[in-house]
Design a protein that fits this description.
The complex is a heterodimer of chains A (about 250) and B (about 70). Chain A is about 85% helix and about 0% strand. Chain A has one domain. Chain A is built from eight helices and no strands. Chain B has a domain at about 20-70. Chain B has helices at about 1-15, 20-35, 45-70. The termini of chain B are far apart. Classes of the chains: A mainly alpha (about 250), B mainly alpha (about 70). The interface between A and B is large, with 51 and 41 residues.
Chain lengths: ~250, ~70
């Protein structure tokens, strides 16, 4: 029986993180498809998704054998490092300190790079295109795989979290293929901010449980942590905007 | 080999993208563990220290980068 108080944030985090990462990967898949057609793009994407699925299938059952407290502590610390890292970057983008992801610019740069690479190496362009799509999906997907394993392992939520990530992946790829242009209007930074908040909250929750803390309200404490990280992230972004403006004057 | 190198670089960047942030988070976790296991503080207080420490690390990391960089627009 799934406990929705923990399953909903776990599946939601996997879904949103997958949207963010696949939007970024799709820009490169589209550059590949525009240059050499959909065949190498689909083959490269499919191969990368198979590798990522294999990683989840291999690591999932292995992690079930690790004692729960040790697993919670290890995954909690990794989630803190990863989640606060995402939140920091999202807050800096929100404050205008670092630029937002520009999918149109990345698309143009990737198309130019692929053409140049084919001329320089004199290799089959289909091969380069397929490998480029493979690498893009593999590298962007690694973060999703970590999130799926981190929020899913230890609570029997590996499958629901994987399905959440796969649903997002399918959704982005279908919409992207229909629209046939970089998905520049997806509010990537807002999604990244949200995922950073959830992962940081999960990080504190798991690390605390791993250290023997019994949180008041049990799983519901997760929502309190999320609210605190959200408020602190917004405050940090606001303070950073002020600091940045002072420096610019 | 290039792909493997890129995968390892990606994995490293995922957790140690900002070395100071990583060190600060590890210090907060170690301090909370020490409070609970060595100082004998009630686990819930150690948990509170963990939460407060992580929130402080987030604000400090954002402000440190903001002080070093000019606005992007």
């Amino acid at each position: 029986m799934i406990e929705w108080s923990i399953a909903a944030p776990a599946i939601g985090s996997a879904f949103l993180a997958s949207v963010v990462e696949i939007v970024e990967a799709f820009t490169i898949i589209l550059a590949v498809a525009s240059l050499r057609g959909w065949r190498p793009a689909v083959l490269g994407t499919g191969a990368a998704l198979a590798v990522l699925g294999g990683i989840v299938l291999a690591l999932g059952p292995l992690l079930d054998r690790v004692p729960l407290h040790a697993l919670q502590l290890a995954i909690g610390i990794l989630l803190l490092l990863f989640g606060i890292g995402w939140l920091r970057k999202a807050a800096l983008r929100l404050a205008g300190v670092i630029p937002l992801h520009d999918e149109e610019a990345i698309f143009a740069a990737e198309t130019a790079y692929l053409g140049e690479e084919a001329r320089r190496k004199k290799t089959s362009l289909d091969w380069i295109a397929g490998i480029t799509a493979f690498k893009a999906v593999l590298l962007e997907g690694l973060e999703v795989v970590f999130i799926v394993i981190a929020v899913g392992a230890g609570r029997g939520l590996l499958w629901p979290a994987s399905l959440g990530a796969l649903a997002a992946c399918a959704l982005v790829l279908v919409i992207g293929t229909i629209v046939h242009r970089p998905l520049a209007r997806v509010p990537e930074n807002t999604l990244k901010f949200g995922v950073g908040v959830m992962l940081s909250a999960f990080g504190v929750f798991w690390t605390g449980e791993g250290l023997g803390v019994e949180w008041p309200g049990a799983d519901l404490a997760l929502f309190v942590f999320a609210a605190l990280f959200l408020a602190t992230g917004l405050l940090a972004a606001s303070l950073a905007r002020g600091t940045s403006r002072e420096l610019a004057q | 080999m290039t792909i493997l190198k890129d995968v390892l670089a990606e994995l490293f960047g995922m957790f140690v993208g900002d070395a100071r942030l990583t060190a600060a988070v590890l210090v907060v976790v170690a301090a909370s563990a020490a409070l609970i296991d060595l100082a004998g503080v009630a686990p819930i207080l150690g948990g509170g220290a963990l939460l407060a420490g992580c929130l402080a690390v987030l604000v400090a990391a954002v402000l440190r980068t903001a002080r070093r960089k000019k606005p992007s627009e």
